[in-house]
Amino acid sequence: MSSEALRATMVYRLLLKAVRKHIGNDEAKKHFKDYVSQEFRKSSSISDPISVQEKIKLARDYTFLLNSVHHHKDLLFSYNIAVDRSDEVKRILGKSAASVGLQLPEVYQP
Q1: What's one Pfam family the UniProt record gives for this protein (predicted)?
Q2: Buried b / exposed e along 21-43 (16+ C-beta atoms within 10 A)
Q3: Are 104 and 93 in contact (CB under 8 A)?
Q4: How far is CA 81 from each of CA 67, 70, 90, 103, rounded to the nearest angstrom?
Q5: What angle do CA 57, 58, 60 make, to 5 degrees?
Q6: For the purposes of burial, counting CB atoms within 10 Å of the CB of 88, is it exposed (0-12), middle (13-18) or buried (19 or more)?
Q7: What is the pLDDT of residues 53-87, one digit of tens each?
Q8: CA-CA distance, 62 to 82, in Å (whole number)?
Q9: pTM over 0.70
């Protein structure tokens, strides 16, 4: 496998991982993953090395964008910028409790 093909494979995997993590993997959002796969398959027949490098760079940049937007959103939540954080705090407490083998009790709501 050539170095370009290896790099393209690595970028493809990272992009699919970012799409699954930040956009979602359910049926309603499946078209994002399908579009990425379709674009990589179309680009596999390109023989011009400069075009291949540009496509790989575009995919790498889009992966970076997805990860950065998600990280930015997490930062905004952590800084409490006009956001109700009760669900976020509940999720974090649940993960902390689960890490030591406990579960949070159900809150009674009359």
Answers
A1: Complex1_LYR_2
A2: ebbeeeeeeeebbeebeeebeeb
A3: yes
A4: 20, 15, 18, 29
A5: 65
A6: middle
A7: 888 898 999 999 999 999 998 888 777 766 666 77
A8: 28
A9: no
